[in-house]
Design goal:
The complex is a heterodimer of chains A (about 210) and B (about 300). Chain A is mostly helical and about 210 residues long. Chain A is built from eight helices and three strands. The longest helix of chain A has 30 residues. Chain A starts with 6 loop residues before the first strand and ends in a 47-residue tail after the last helix. Chain B is of the alpha+beta class and about 300 residues long. Chain B has three helices and 20 strands. The chains are: A mainly alpha (about 210), B alpha+beta (about 300). The interface between A and B is medium-sized, with 29 and 27 residues.
Chain lengths: ~210, ~300
């Protein structure tokens, strides 16, 4: 059933990584209708053995992260739309306040040192770490696998650090996920304030793009 | 007792069957069984004999209304879980009898070293039963799939789903619609049961038996089919340690796709003001789909 001809994509469907949904393009269904086929991630399972002939276990984890990130992004987009529609929040103001250094670190520390084994937190942390290009594209399969399987935040971060190492830099850089990155920087290197509805208390920040 | 090696007619010589001949006998037995199984599954409306499976989904909380202000999220009833039980697969057995050993010479003949004897029924079991049942289970007698079009080589047991995964239809809930109907589900996936037709395989050689005159004669394929089918159908139904049985989960070989129960993992608090003196709030299902459980139909030898 799972062959190069029928295989389209596959991803784990549970936090324990015990079951995999394989999307198949089967002869007996409409060409545009993919058939979901759920199998066990069990080395003794013929289906699983067939799947691993087509895609590596590491790729399966990669595809799972991508799929869950898409779901997560879609959920955030939907939540933002709902919030905007209801006039409840101005997210840009809140995000900008959050990145103010003095407020960020207590929040960061609190996030790391509380709920260390919370599954939702772990998922969000791993998702964010795999958003770092250096980790995402690392060829250190063992550390990436260990990061994915990390059972608590410290363990996850340790594996992330093992991949990235400690950088020695002479200037501040912008985090890849920061609101100060990419299109928030003008060609002159100035910070371009986001369009907001409310007046923000955050001071204008000047920074340089990483070269 | 132990497994025996039947005799076959090789041209004009009598020889013991080769392992390739034995493998074909097992494949043929698998086909004979799958084309007429003695342990069957069916789709039923309710109260199936296999364990029930549970589909869960979130539904909106009850709406609140107040004449002068919105009730807070804390004072608005939470979303809750709707649980639906799917108990739609039943197992039945055919009440077969053990094959009769007519005159104690019905079954294949084998050589002891100095003598030629007919297998006893127990020797037939010892020779074929375990391997044949393993082959039957490995051939996946039934499969679960997400399509009413059966996989190649299978026939629909029913086009009625044996399990349905539903989730709250998050898009159907709107603040402007408060008070919304609490349970607004949408079907995510239906799962159907299919039965294998088996793959017709011919013997490479048929065994020899001892006839009423005490002579050896070669069984025709049709004659050995009758014996083989009687034996394997009885074995699958009744023979201790070699029975074929089906379960939802537990140990055994997974038959087709797992059946996944998913549920939205969050909620959102919404408000609506109607006419200046009717402040309504309600919590709706929201979030991502989370896998709650995965059920597998399994076959095992017991």
């Amino acid at each position: 059933m799972i062959t190069k001809k029928t295989y389209v994509t596959a991803a784990f469907i549970d936090a324990d990584r015990k079951n995999i949904e394989v999307l198949l393009n089967m002869d007996h269904t409409d060409a545009k209708t993919l058939t979901p086929h759920v199998i066990e991630a069990d080395p003794d399972s013929k289906d699983y053995q067939d799947l691993l002939k087509i895609v590596s276990e590491d790729n399966l984890h990669e595809q799972t992260w991508n799929a869950r990130k898409q779901e997560s992004d879609a959920m955030i987009a939907m939540a933002k739309e709902l919030a905007k529609g209801a006039g409840i929040v101005d997210e840009e103001v809140q995000v900008q306040e959050l990145v103010t250094t003095t407020k960020l670190y207590p929040t960061l520390v609190d996030a790391i040192f509380s709920n260390m084994e919370n599954e939702d937190h772990l998922f969000a942390l791993k998702l964010a770490l795999f958003g770092i290009q250096e980790i995402k594209e690392s060829t250190n399969v063992a550390e990436k696998t260990a990061l994915r399987k990390g059972k608590n935040k410290i363990e996850v971060l340790q594996h992330a650090f093992n991949i990235t190492g400690v950088r020695s830099l002479n200037e501040d850089t912008i985090a890849p996920t920061s609101v100060l990155s990419e299109d928030r920087i003008t060609e002159d290197g100035d910070y371009k304030k986001p369009v907001v509805k409310k007046k923000t208390t955050t001071k204008k920040t000047t920074t340089k793009k990483k070269t | 007792m132990a497994a025996k090696t039947p005799l076959k007619l090789d041209g004009t010589n009598v020889r013991e069957m080769a392992s390739g001949d034995y493998d074909k006998v097992i494949e043929r037995m698998t086909y004979l069984y799958l084309s007429d199984p003695s342990v069957t599954l069916s789709q039923v409306g309710s109260s199936g004999t296999l364990d029930a499976m549970t589909d869960t989904r979130t539904q909106a909380g009850a709406a609140t209304t107040h004449a002068s202000s919105f009730r807070s999220a804390g004072d608005t009833p939470d979303v809750s879980t709707v649980t639906v039980s799917y108990d739609k697969i039943s197992l039945a057995t055919a009440s077969t009898s053990a094959p009769a050993d007519t005159n104690n010479i019905r079954f294949p003949a084998y050589i002891t070293g100095t003598d030629i004897k007919a297998m006893s029924l127990q020797e037939m079991y010892d020779t074929y039963a375990s391997d044949a049942i393993d082959a039957i289970i490995a051939a996946l007698p039934y499969q679960i799939s997400t399509s009413t079009s059966p996989p190649s080589g299978y026939t629909n047991v029913s086009t009625t789903a044996v399990f349905t995964d539903t989730r709250a239809n998050a898009g159907a809930y709107t603040a402007g619609g408060i008070t919304e109907t609490q349970d607004q589900p949408t079907t995510i996936t239906n799962y159907y049961l299919h039965r294998s037709n088996g793959t017709d395989v011919a013997y490479t050689a048929t065994p020899m038996t001892i006839n009423g005159d005490g002579n050896l004669e070669e069984l025709t394929s049709a004659e050995f089919d009758v014996i083989a089918k009687e034996m394997i159908r009885y074995t699958a139904e009744n023979l201790a340690s070699n029975k074929v049985r089906y379960y939802i989960d537990g140990s055994g070989t997974a038959l087709g796709s797992g059946m996944v129960n998913t549920k939205l993992d969050g909620s959102t608090y919404q408000q609506r003001e109607v006419g200046g003196d009717d402040y309504r709030t309600q919590e709706f299902p929201a979030g991502s789909a989370a896998t709650i459980s995965t059920y597998y139909l399994r076959a095992r030898k017991e």
